[in-house]
Amino acid sequence: MKQSQQSNKLRFDGQVFLLGLMSIKKVGQSQLG
Questions:
Q1: CA distance 1 to 32
Q2: Residues with Cβ within 8 Å of residue 15, at least 6 apart in sequence
Q3: pLDDT for position 33
Q4: Mean pLDDT by 10 residues, the chain (33 residues)
Q5: How far apart are CA 27 and CA 9, in angstroms?
Q6: How many whole angstroms separate alpha carbon 29 and alpha carbon 15?
């Protein structure tokens, strides 16, 4: 149970990290014009 919760948190952190990267890319592209 505890291990599955930990893996779920890692997966959630990974999704947040990917979303952050995508948003940074979008901001960079919009700044480049």
A1: 47
A2: none
A3: 60
A4: 86 96 91 70
A5: 27
A6: 21
Write down the pTM of the prediction: 0.61
Predicted confidence at residue 28, as pLDDT, reads 86
Q: Enumerate the H helices of the chain as residue ranges.
A: 2-32
Residue type, 33: G
CA 26 to each of CA 9, 14, 15, 21: distance values in angstroms, whole numbers, following the listed order: 26, 18, 16, 9
Give pLDDT, residue 12: 95
